[in-house]
Write a structure and sequence with these properties.
The chain is 15% helix and 28% strand. It has a single domain, classed as Hypothetical protein YwqG fold. Strand 12 and strand 13 form a beta hairpin. A ten-stranded antiparallel sheet has the order 8-7-6-2-10-1-11-12-13-14. A two-stranded antiparallel ribbon has the order 3-9. The protein is globular.
Length: 275
């Protein structure tokens, strides 16, 4: 999606590639929605949801819990009608709310440590993504845990549309550059290729401070490019849905197949922790 961005911004990267390679790389760009939790960081951005606090749930819907472990923590709520979803290349609903939950073993009364994406657990364990249609009435639900300064409700402010691109983990990047970055056994292994150095510098220049994000490629860390259980995956169909702060010192990347998102199969989303 190059039409939304000034391609000259990416010259430090594209100059390391041939013209044909550069065009292929530019076609991989995806727009992401940057969110901030502090007004001073967001400028005039409007409120599009909230972080932590009490979510609104439909009457009769039980608070999400992890069977045998305990209640999950509310991570974030996004109002799709307030997000500029038309700017994204993933099929988010035009309205309604997305409500994100995860099991926080550090805040729960349990004797084990868990982070989403743990390979010892089943895919999707300890997380829950709800979609609540705009037509369904909701009310704030009392949390089954104590709210402290880390779990108090804080607004999400819209901070603009940002360009994102795949990192070196993606096979398509190695295919474009002709140089593999992470596999020393590959005959084309070459982490010294100038593309990789230029990409790191560009990410530092355009990425800015860590912030929550909707759509695009996952920021500040890399969840699995493909879901672990996928036998013949298409890495570009396994898309980044959202990233929010988690566990006080890290980020939780929410991923889903594009087709599942389009069909409203939100229960198939997975999440991966990155510190």
């Amino acid at each position: 999606m190059t039409s939304s961005f000034d391609v000259s911004l990416f010259a430090p990267v594209t100059d390391t590639l041939t013209p044909q390679q550069a065009q292929r790389w530019l076609r991989l760009l995806r727009p992401g929605i940057r969110l901030r939790r502090h007004r001073e960081d967001a400028g005039e951005g409007s409120v599009v949801g909230h972080f932590a606090g009490l979510p609104g749930l439909p009457e009769g819907m039980a608070w999400p819990s992890w069977e045998g472990r305990g209640p999950m923590h509310h991570q974030a709520t996004l109002d799709c009608a307030l997000l500029p979803t038309h700017e994204l290349d993933i099929p988010l609903p035009p309205d309604g709310e997305l409500v994100f939950f995860y099991f926080d073993s550090f805040e729960s009364d349990c004797d084990f440590i868990f982070v989403p994406g743990d390979h010892e657990e089943e895919p999707g364990a300890g997380i829950k993504l709800l979609y609540i249609p705009a037509s369904e009435p909701t009310r704030p639900r009392q949390a089954p845990y104590d709210l402290d300064r880390h779990t108090q409700k804080r607004p999400f402010f819209l901070n603009g549309i940002v360009p994102t691109w795949p990192d070196a983990e993606y096979a398509v990047v190695s295919d474009i550059t002709g140089a593999f970055y992470h596999d020393p056994d590959h005959p084309s292994y070459d982490p010294s290729h100038p593309y990789y150095h230029a990409e790191v510098d560009l990410a530092a220049e355009l990425g800015g401070d860590p912030a929550s994000q909707v759509g695009g490629y996952a920021p500040w860390g890399q969840p699995p490019v493909v879901p672990p259980e996928s036998a013949e995956p298409d890495e570009l169909d396994w898309v980044h849905l959202a990233t929010f702060e988690a566990f006080r010192d890290g980020w939780l990347h929410w991923m889903i197949y594009r087709e599942d998102l389009a069909e409203g199969r939100f229960d198939r989303a997975e999440a991966f922790f990155e510190r």
